# Entry
Amino acid sequence: MGGTVYHSTAATAIGGGASAYIKLTPSGDGSTLAADYVADLTGVTWNSTYNGYYDISGNAYVFDELDAYYANEISGFNNKLWKAIHNSNINFILGEMNIVLTNYTGTGVPQIASGSWAEINGRKYIITSNLSITGATVNNTWYDILLTPAGGGFTASYIARGTGAWSDSKRGLYSGNNRVVACVKRSTSSSLWINKNILQVVNRTLKIKFETGDWNMVSTGTLNVNHGLLLATVRTLNTMIRNDAGTLFSALNFTGFFSNYEEILSTYVRLIREAGSTFDSTDYDATSYNRGWITIEYEV
# Structure
């Protein structure tokens, strides 16, 4: 520091209230240093001679340069290593992410897949191994997945569906400074998860898909499927039906003169099959079988 090497011979407490910035003050004769927390970096600039941040009195400052940059405490990067890290972390557009859920097409417990990354509140975070999602869950319930920054990565937790609110400035769904990136539904047990969706926003709308579940369309003319959404935000609704053999996929309302259709209410989608229509046949009466998928677009 300032051309002098200092050596700590014992653990030494840092004075002041804990903060993100530490000030190192040399004694008058340069024999010792005092370390104190400071609230901000007012008057602190880069000193190219000593390769560090100093104030005009010759006191040095220790802090995470990247975090200080995002907090607007410094205006740019000077340390070469941090420049490289900086470039790798901010060459992206606000709102970008590449989140992948494991067991996506099955019913296994999902994790955030290794290599997934997201921009959260102006900074890019990445994980390098599969990440478990924490939080208490109950059967037959929808959940959002919340990412919380932790070092250079993030943690993931289940929160109530619809907790996130759109932020224009952050370009995403947020709960405070943490980002909502996906939604899933826990089925009839803690080991059965269905309806896994990554929440990508396009024109302020999100699209999610979910299973109809069992439906013997011969014995039952209507089916109600919970959606977990705010009704006023829904913009489009479509349902795809498959036959028992899985060889024919059709829109529920495709059959010309018959009034097969879907409608959405405050808590569920109602699917309606008219008697005598194509779906009222033994090709559509199997059970223990997901009959099809509902797709909803809704505004945030």
About this structure: Residues 80-90 form the longest helix (11 residues).
